Amino acid sequence: MEVIDLAWWKLALVALLVLALAGVSLAARLGITRSLLIAASRTVIQLALIGLVLEALFASAEFYWIALLALIMLLVAGREVMARQQRRLRGIWSFGIGTGAMFVSSFTVTVLTLVVVIGPEPWYAPQYAIPLLGMMLGNTMTGVALSLDRLTESVWDQRAVIENRLMLGETWREALEDIRRHAMRSGMMPAINAMAAAGIVSLPGMMTGQILAGSPPAVAVKYQILVMLTITVGTGFGTLMAVSWGGRRLFDERERLRLDRLIRVGGR
């Protein structure tokens, strides 16, 4: 089945609908007009640029270029994790914990999936490696950001309870157990909801894209199942590591709560 190409003027026609939505939002004073236009502009610019990069990458298929793009994706995702926390760890820790957790979980699961499950030749073939890593990083980033934000906010709000439990002889792990559990649940909720609704409430993007591109629905379904399961595994291990490392950083070697290691974004 041949894919129907889209002319740029057709995309511009759709963009007019976004402008119409922005106009209605402005008239209704919803306060989302600016963010809507900025987000739509970023989508067009970023996707157009990555399209050019991927075309060059697919043509060369050299490992070092793929590794460089993967590194850039990881660093940008780490910055986004740090930027989405209202109360984050001071210094490099906020960036380092999120980036480290995503590196270990996303890269490990992606390489394992490429080598053992899909098996392209070579194993780092950009047609498979870049889309899979992009989906892994995007979803793991959301999970890690949500879990770290819930962790730091909960520790700040419940600092008196935590210190009382420490004075009663509990370790930092025991004093933080409920908060860590809630933080993990927050990080995993998007992935669990996506799996629960897949195929009934929604048709996931990768499956829809493959069907539009002409792939048989049965093949598209297999790839979608693979992607959703690997995303859940990567998100789960990523949030687990981020919450564990972030929680440990909030206590010193004598297991005293160190709220001075937190900083409120835009505040003190």
From TrEMBL:
Name of a matching Pfam family: UPF0014
Extent of the signal sequence: none
Keyword Translocase: no
Membrane topology: Multi-pass membrane protein
Transmembrane parts of this sequence: 6-28, 35-57, 63-81, 93-116, 128-148, 191-213, 225-246
Cellular localization per UniProt: Membrane
Keywords, ordered alphabetically: Membrane, Transmembrane, Transmembrane helix
InterPro entries for the chain: UPF0014_fam
Family assignment from sequence similarity: Belongs to the UPF0014 family.
Protein name: Iron export ABC transporter permease subunit FetB
